[in-house]
Design a protein that fits this description.
two-stranded antiparallel ribbon; binds nicotinamide-adenine-dinucleotide; 13 helices; 47% helix; 2 domains; globular; binds zinc ion; Dehydroquinate synthase-like, alpha domain; 362 residues; Rossmann fold
Length: 362
């Protein structure tokens, strides 16, 4: 299946399905040119051989980096720049990112700045990367003072999401991606949410059809939102793209509390989705029954529905105020008016937020 991210001159296709890594015509459709591929050690172990063949690459055209979030750093950018310059990748050359969100964000950023910008292709191999990070053009690396603090918007020329690669994904990483899939249902499509309720066990078992549909529908929603608000600049950052942050303010508090180590991003998002649903119901917007469905769906996957042991109401208050968006200094949250209908809100009843924090916090 194929869908398009509609961005005028910067439009690009997303191919989704199994066996894509053995279809060279998908890649050569954007022209044959000098290529360099970057991946990480875990992904290389499973998929470097087929992809090297697919692109007919030599060893010198491949860079294998250590796996893990620490690879997403300026030090690695420097290393990649050195490698690209030494091997003289020309300006009309192309970078290929083979891996999860870490490799995708890093390589996308390298492509944005190498000789003021070269093309790149995303071959996402985690569920999170297939439904979220490989689409939309946000690229970047971390800094000691903050996650994703250095970056650029740079859209890929093509996304190749081979859902067959998810077979080797560790269980926790798979669930982390499922949290983002549930997010799409909650924020934009009640029918997709209901589909997830019916098909969650097939999805967890990585049934081909179920995975393909879940990735397709998620990408479709993200593509639609990105086309409306490419740089998250509409309405001063409170436009369509902000809706993708449903549950994320709570999630960032959890991630910061656990120092970005014990919890995966998607695990924190799972809790954040539950808290956003709870708050939306307390405000009288979302039907209580639908909030319960959100929490039950998250719980049915084995993802956490509660914050880490010992995380207190005051921890949330402090950490969430760090997330305040610059405008007016008021906390801005993404909330649900109903299932499948999210809004950005800065003027909700703060007593309802307190009640949610007391309900979830220690
Ligand atoms: P990741 O890239 O670290 O991958 C998770 C782990 O799975 C790694 O150890 C990796 O080596 C391994 N792996 C990857 N594919 C595999 C496969 N098919 N089989 C076996 N192992 C495999 O993490 P992630 O969750 O994919 O991405 C997280 C990153 O994405 C974060 O840095 C986050 O900031 C970023 N992100 C970016 C955006 C965006 O819009 N750009 C959106 C969401 C998240
Ligand atoms: Zn996320």
């Amino acid at each position: 299946d194929t869908l398009d991210v509609d961005l005028g001159q910067r439009s690009y296709p997303i191919h989704i399905g199994t066996g894509l890594l053995s279809r060279p015509e998908l890649l050569t459709s954007i022209g044959r040119r000098p290529m360099r591929l970057v991946t990480d050690a875990h992904v290389a172990e499973h998929y470097l051989t087929p992809v090297r063949e697919l692109l007919s690459l030599d060893d010198e055209q491949i860079l294998v980096l250590p796996a893990g979030e620490t690879t997403k750093s300026m030090a690695t950018v420097d290393q990649v720049m050195d490698w690209l310059l030494a091997s003289r990748l020309p300006r009309d050359g192309m970078l290929v990112a083979l891996g999860g969100g870490v490799i995708g964000d890093l390589v996308g950023f390298c492509a944005a700045i190498y000789q003021r910008g070269v093309d790149f292709v995303q071959i996402p191999t985690t569920l999170l990367a297939q439904v979220d990070s490989s689409v939309g053009g946000k690229t970047g690396v971390n800094h000691a003072r903050g996650k994703n603090m250095i970056g650029a918007f740079h859209q890929p020329r093509l996304v190749l999401a081979d859902t067959g690669t998810l077979a080797t994904l560790p269980q926790r990483e798979k669930l982390a991606g499922i949290a983002e899939v549930i997010k799409y249902g909650m924020l934009g499509d009640a029918a997709f949410f209901a589909w997830l309720e019916r098909n969650m066990s097939a999805l967890l078992a990585l049934d081909d059809e179920a995975v393909r549909y879940a990735v397709y529908r998620s990408c479709e929603m993200k593509a639609e939102i990105v086309a409306l608000d490419e740089r998250e600049s509409v309405d001063g950052g409170a436009g369509p793209r902000a809706l993708l942050n449903l549950g994320h303010t709570f999630a960032h508090a959890v991630e910061t509390y656990t120092h970005y180590t014990e919890w995966l991003h998607g695990e924190a998002v799972a809790v954040g989705l539950c808290m956003a649903a709870d708050l939306s119901a307390r405000l009288g917007w979302l039907a209580g029954r639908d909030a319960d469905r959100c929490i039950a769906l998250v719980a049915s996957t084995g993802l956490p529905t509660r914050p880490p042991q010992g995380m207190r109401v005051d921890d949330f208050r402090t950490l969430m105020s760090l997330d305040k968006k610059v405008a007016s200094g008021k906390l801005r949250l993404i909330l649900l008016r109903s299932l499948g209908d999210a809004v950005v809100s800065a003027d909700f009843d703060s007593q309802a937020l307190d009640a949610t924090l007391r309900h979830f916090g220690a």
